[in-house]
Design a protein that fits this description.
This protein is mostly helical and 165 residues long. Helices cover 51% and strands 8% of the residues. It contains five helices and five strands. The radius of gyration is 23 Å and the shape is extended. The protein starts with a strand and ends with a helix.
């Protein structure tokens, strides 16, 4: 699974279900191909866990894997590396939510493409939920702004005081 790096509102950009359990380093390229065929721009850097060792770059995307800090790294460099690789840990709760809330725990479709369809539907539902949350925030903000504009208008205040009639 590939998600955005936004704090809090992570959107799933690519998800792929594999029939076997391949080596973690071999799961990156199919996800990047899925992003390309979907018309999405590939990221400059991809943060991965230690299981993805092997290639340091795929299709022009730098693969960053956590390692022990070097002795010559400053405290600031160590802190930024630590913060960058903590974003990888944020994917695990997303997978848990997809399994429990969006029915990814059990496959409901048959055949070889069944798990892939199930994963895509769960990711689509996740993204729709996030988009609806953003839309809800914008509508509430707009509603509050209209209320402020109406109640701060002197003509409207006069009508309120006189009882509209």
């Amino acid at each position: 699974m590939i998600t955005t790096a936004n704090k809090g509102k992570k959107i799933i950009l690519g998800i792929k279900a594999f029939l076997q359990t391949p080596y973690d380093g071999h799961t990156i390229e199919p996800l990047l191909e899925q992003m390309e065929t979907g018309g999405q721009k590939l990221p400059k850097e991809l943060v991965y866990d230690r299981g993805g060792r092997g290639k340091s770059e795929i299709k022009g995307v730098k693969i960053s894997i956590p390692s022990t800090p070097r002795k010559k790294d400053t405290a600031y460099q160590k802190q930024t590396k630590r913060k960058k690789f903590r974003t990888r840990a944020a994917i695990e709760p997303i997978i848990g939510h997809l399994k429990t809330d969006f029915r990814l725990a059990k496959n409901y479709f048959m055949g070889e493409t069944g798990p892939q369809i199930n994963a895509l539907l769960a990711a689509t539902a996740w993204n729709m939920k996030k988009m609806m949350e953003l839309l809800k925030q914008k509508i509430i903000f707009l509603f509050c702004k209209i209320q402020i504009m109406l109640f701060s208008n002197p003509v409207f205040k006069n009508k309120l005081n006189s009882g509209f009639c």
